[in-house]
Amino acid sequence: MNFKQLHYFLTTVKKGSIAAAARELDIAQPAISQQLASLEREMGGQLLTRSFSGVVLTPAGQVFLNHAIKLVDDFNLAKNELNGIFNRIDCVVKVAMLPSIGNVLSMPLIAEVKARHPKLTLDISTGPSYSVKSWLEEGNVDIALTYEQEVNPQFMTVEPLIREELHLVVSNAATNNEYQHLLSRDTISFWEISQFPLLSPSTKDALGRLIAHYERLTGVSLQHDRAYSGQLMTGLRQVMQGEGVMILPTSAVFHLQESGLVKLLKIVDPEMPRLVLAATNKTAPLNDATARMLSIIKQVVASEQKQHHWCGLLAFAQQAQSRGASLSGSLISN
Predict the structure, then answer these.
(1) What residues are paired with 314 via a beta bridge?
(2) Residues 296, 205 within the same domain
(3) Same-domain check for residues 168 and 305
(4) What's residue 90's pLDDT?
(5) DSSP-H helix ranges across the chain
(6) Residues 200 and 245 in one domain
(7) Is 210 domain-assigned?
(8) Which mean pLDDT values do the consecutive 10-residue runs of the chain (334 residues) have?
(9) What are the protein's UniProt keywords (predicted)?
(10) For helices 18-25 and 3-15, what crossing angle results, to 10°?
(11) What integer pLDDT is reported at residue 323 of this predicted model?
(12) Helices 59-90/288-306 angle, 10° precision
């Protein structure tokens, strides 16, 4: 028995089928089936009943499930504790973030660490929201910069960073009359977005789920029939070619706005705020290097917000002000 077999077993049980587990793990179904069969031979009996509709735990499988969860948790705890020791030695901090966040934070964060914190080494990974969440859960990164839609309090400890504003992104060079009248505006109502082909991710992504939430909230159905790969840079190229519009934070497109390539219209009625957080894994000890990196991230977020690269309200500043107001009230009352 090895960790891979346990991981495949737990993912298959969680997803309800080998096919769904293969999609989640991004590997071929036969590879999972082979590992599960090997695990069952080693355990001495069938753990899963397989059918066209999926998999179901056998009585033995239910017993094994509890042990498998504990074994994986213990393994991750040991791995994270060792990572804490190793990180204290070489001070490498692994930070994962979405491309929209990476666009505004990666370069200034790298520059800040290099200039002022030579004992720290920053390792940045970018990916979709569900991948960033998975990397943190599996202990592959120390800090995940993500959105409130992806928070899982079972294994995450979070610190709010910024409540960003979402905007409609339109090509500034639009020659199509469909978009031309938008270039003289600064805001747009949510219902008006339904008039334009929207390039949006699926609901597997945090942004896709947020857009779907506002569709339900307002009763407005947006046009999602325009082909979109889910890749931010590809989507922005499509926008600049006049193929559609996107809903994004300024962090994702401030550089294109400054270059005059896109126009941003703040979404109102209702507004679409989204809370960005820094998350760490509860099972991992928060070593000095990770704590230092969290502090640096906050500094860089504040700097980018001040330069209007990232429009929104600093959430950690609000927290500090609330605590200060509470303390002042307490002192006055005493």
Answers:
(1) 162
(2) no
(3) no
(4) 54
(5) 3-15, 18-25, 29-43, 59-90, 99-116, 129-137, 177-180, 206-218, 232-240, 250-258, 288-306, 315-333
(6) yes
(7) yes
(8) 86 91 89 90 91 91 89 80 58 93 96 90 93 93 93 92 96 78 92 94 89 95 84 90 92 94 94 94 87 94 95 77 42 36
(9) DNA-binding, Transcription, Transcription regulation
(10) 120
(11) 43
(12) 80
Any domain includes 15: yes
- Do both 44 and 139 map to the same domain? no
Report CA-CA distances (Å) from 239 to 154, 206, 221: 38, 20, 20
Q: What is the pLDDT of residue 71?
A: 87
pLDDT at 25: 87
Find the domain containing 156 and state its range: 82-163+275-329
Inter-residue contact 32 to 26 (CB < 8 Å): no
Query: pTM of the prediction?
Result: 0.67
Q: What DSSP designation does 150 have?
A: G
Helices (H), 117-229: 129-137, 177-180, 206-218
Domain count of the fold of the chain: 3
Looking at the fold, whether 137 and 44 belong to one and the same domain comes out as: no
Cα 60 to chain centroid, rounded:
36
How far apart CA 310 and CA 19 sit, in angstroms, is 40
Domain boundary among 50, 72, 94: 72
pLDDT for 317 equals 63
Taking CA atoms, 182 is separated from 88, 174, 198, 273, in Å, by: 52, 9, 15, 21
Q: Report the SS3 class of residue 87.
A: helix
Residue 89: the pLDDT is 47
* pLDDT for 254: 94
Domain boundary residue, one of 273, 290, 316: 273
Q: Is residue 99 part of a domain?
A: yes
Same structural domain, 184 and 35 = no
Q: Which amino acid is at 68?
A: A
User: For position 99, which CATH number holds?
Assistant: 3.40.190.10
Question: Which residue reads 């989204």 in tokens?
Answer: 274
Supply the pLDDT for residue 86: 56
The total number of residues shown for the chain amounts to 334
Q: Tell me, yes or no, whether 223 and 306 share the same domain.
A: no
Q: For residues 170 and 261, give the distance between their C-alpha atoms in angstroms, rounded to a whole number.
A: 9
